[in-house]
Amino acid sequence: MKGLIIYASCYGSTKTYAEWISEETGMQVVSYKEATDKDIENTNTIVIGSWVLAHKLFLKKWLTEKKELLKGKKLYVFSVSGAKPGDKELDHVFSDSLDAELLKDCKTYQFGGRRETKKMSGFHKFMMFIAAAFIEKDKEKKAEMKRYVDNVDRKYINVLMEDLQ
């Protein structure tokens, strides 16, 4: 299948999904830092994967900058986070991250991620602390924010794979 997979990964989960999608489709995988405008112009099908930071796609700014290049493409965007796919806290990730014009023409997917507090940067640990201490009200979710979570599972790409066919 001809197309391009562009991803941003902080701790490796999003890159893993991008590689799995590439294995299934034969599409080229590149980091958003390496994706050129020419790469985007020369393909009709683009899969974009981004991790989630503060309930927004990390690639929000990049997606805004590339909006004109992405218009008219077959666009598939997936998010990866420590929250479980379908969790209400993820409800607005795509609408808060994608331009309305891009959003109406793309398909979106939520994939499970991995949260390893011990491997987090100081900034991300601080963000988790703030969220747990001052934002999250549910005691069970507060406790879960401190635990190791591994929701990375190849099954999450199945719906995207069906849509790509």
Mind sketching the topology for me?
Layout: E1 4-8, H1 13-25, E2 28-31, H2 37-41, E3 45-53, E4 56-57, H3 60-65, H4 67-70, E5 74-81, H5 100-104, E6 106-112, E7 114-115, H6 122-135, H7 139-144, E8 149-150, H8 158-164
Number of distinct beta strands: 8
- In CATH terms, the superfamily is Flavodoxin domain
Structural class: alpha/beta
Q: Which second-level CATH architecture applies? A: 3-Layer(aba) Sandwich
Q: Outline the biggest β-sheet.
A: 6 strands, mixed
Q: Give the proportion of residues in helices.
A: 25-40%
User: Number of folding domains?
Assistant: 1
Strand content: 15-25%
Radius of gyration, in Å, reads 16 Å
Specify the overall morphology: globular
Average pLDDT score: 88
Distance between the termini: 9 Å
- What is the CATH class name? Alpha Beta
